[in-house]
Amino acid sequence: MTRVLTPQAEDFPRWYQDVVAKAELAESGPVKGQQVIRPSGYALWERMVSEMDDRIKETGAENASFPLLVPQSYLSREAQHVEGFAPECWTVTHAGGKQLEEPVVVRPTSETVIGEYMAKWVQSYRDLPLLLNQWANVMRYEMRTRLFLRTSEFLWQEGHTAHASYEDAATYNRHILHEVYEDFMVNVLAMPVMTGLKTVAERFAGALNTFACEAMMRDGKALQMGTCHELGQNFSKAFDIDFLGSDGQQHHAWTTSWGTSTRMLGGLIMAHGDDKGLRVPPQLAPVQAYILCVKDGEGVNEAANKVHSALKAAGVRARLNTRTDVPFGRRAVDAELKGYPIRIEIGPRDVAEGKAMLVRRIDGSKTPVSLESLPGAVTEALEADQRALFEEAKSFRDSHTTRVDTLDDAIEAAADGFAVVPWAQCGEDGEKRAAQHAVTVRCLQRADGTVPDSDSEDGLIAVMARSY
Predict the structure, then answer these.
(1) For the chain, what percent of residues have pLDDT higher than 70?
(2) Which one, of 6, 25, 8, 5, lies nearest residue 270 by Cα?
(3) pLDDT tens track for 201-242
(4) φ, ψ of residue 77 in degrees (nearest 5)
(5) What is the distance between the alpha carbons of residues 221 and 233, in angstroms, rounded to a whole number?
(6) In this structure, are residues 40 and 337 in contact, taking their beta carbons and an 8 Å threshold?
(7) Which of 33, 361, 438, 447, CA to CA, is 20 to 30 A from 152?
(8) Rounded to whole angstroms, how far apart are CA atoms 261 and 154?
(9) Inter-axis angle of helices 263-272 and 374-399, nearest 10
(10) What is the largest CA-CA distance in the chain?
């Protein structure tokens, strides 16, 4: 049999490229580093947007839209920020056939332009907190690109907030980290992420602190899935975001920013995919149940349509395929590649017996089920497979996480997964040495796995890994 995908064990990067192409998720765009997200891939992103947007709005944030082009002078007003992003900026110098008086930058992120408007909208403590979010595209110049994981243009959400106190800003930022990002990644993406504090070397340009969600891929490497930044008063001072406090004095606001992107699609592929293609968590799947007519026969289409209607009535996202002019094997392989959690196969013999074959993508089982029982059986299987996928990913991560006592041991252990080492045994000098071996500190945690407030706390541990 001709294999469809390169096996993971043979060449993981090639396997990833095969899945993206053959599951029809994305293709390279006409300009270096761009990507064209195809309908199958975009449907996954739409589901991510829907689930994330609901959680973001529950925190009180409101969606807005800000300009794509940012005056270059805006970036220059926050020194660390412009220094951090200058190498990644795409700059427009001409428009309408003429050179612009001031170049404009295609947004790499929107702290500066949103800061400009926060300054207009915030006058009093009564205007705070100001909680904004936008779904947009951004551009960053990348030398080495890979679809979804690192592209010059990508889709994301970016939240930006202003608060009356550091405590309020920090509390809200942690709420986004845990109740929005971690909750979504664990309960929808079925990915057991580690949350922690980034080191100074990995901190967002212009931030006081950066917190991150880190996930393990099936090759043992780490992928940063989302970040939350405490910006302190750095941007409010640069953009004059000040307000009249309840004490009658003028104060600078405390701001945060936080974001996730289409990089999560790459993470989804690499955390759950196998040698047959994607395995999409049922909670996320745009198509939870894929109904296939095996071949033409009396009552087949009628039975399939009834099943389709019954599943939709039960709240299952179902799709019906009656294209018997396309070989069944080809359609079944396509369903496996795209990771549909449930496949329901109905042919003439099944109709005669009043049954259908229920095929589960996660565990590969095939079970004949009566047509009347399908809605309940499908719902039960979806719930079980969501849990199973998470537990499998967690088991894989835990079995590829090694606790060590020295930096040298951490560098060695990071070849096979996460290495957990006392931060005191690493520090900034050790972090630089590890980087020479392509190993980075993914995040800092307390010994009990909780997220510290700063890297100066005693007894912190460093989670180290090779990464994307």
Answers:
(1) 100
(2) 8
(3) 999 999 999 999 999 999 999 999 999 999 999 999 999 999
(4) -80, -15
(5) 35
(6) no
(7) 438
(8) 7
(9) 90
(10) 81
Average the pLDDT over 165-175 and give the result.
Answer: 98
d(CA 439, CA 430): 10
pTM of the prediction?
A: 0.96
Distance CA 266, CA 150 (A): 9
Is residue 306 exposed (0-12), middle (13-18) or buried (19+ Cβ within 10 Å)?
middle
Close Cβ partners of 452 (under 8 Å, ≥ 6 residues apart): 196, 197, 444, 445, 446, 460
**Cα 71 from Cα 411, distance rounded (Å):** 43
CA–CA separation, 366 and 368 (whole Å): 7
Q: Which residue type, as a one-letter code, is found at position 139?
A: M
Which residues contact residue 213 at a Cβ distance below 8 angstroms, ignoring those fewer than 6 apart? 177, 181, 182, 185, 193, 194, 195, 224, 225, 226, 227
Residue 240: burial class (beta carbons within 10 Å; 0-12, 13-18, 19+):
middle
**CA 62, CA 243: separation in Å to the nearest integer?**
21
Decide if pLDDT at 2 tops 80: no
- How does pLDDT run across 435-448, given as a tens digit for each residue? 999 999 999 999 99
Sign of the dihedral through C-alpha 443, 445, 451, 454: negative
Give the pLDDT mean for 62-68: 98
What is the gyration radius of the CA atoms in the chain, in angstroms? Answer: 25
